[in-house]
Amino acid sequence: MVSVNDLPSVSIQNKDKITHAMFYFVFVFLWGNAFTKNSKTFFKVFVFAILYGIIIEIFQGVFTETRSADFFDVLANTFGALLGLLLLFIKKIT
């Protein structure tokens, strides 16, 4: 058998940004599906998700000593939310 210590380690650059994008993709897609399927609701969910992400980043920078606000987290959140919004519209038209 191979020891776990003998396995090569895998390093993914910016995996926290990928995690942010994936979370906001799921966030927008699931919440968009939870409500009526109209474009206005989709945009409201998208805007709410973006504002939520911005507020969380601000709180991290202001109210914690161990975390910091990161503009690139906001960009990753926005990218994931946009993908979720895109999937909602694709699902709506099919």
From TrEMBL:
TM segment ranges: 18-35, 42-59, 71-90
Keyword tRNA-binding appears in the UniProt entry: no
Domain VanZ-like: 21-90
Domain of life: Bacteria
Pfam annotation, one family: VanZ
This protein's record includes keyword Transmembrane helix: yes
Record keywords: Membrane, Transmembrane, Transmembrane helix
Protein name: VanZ like family protein
UniProt source species: Flavobacterium haoranii
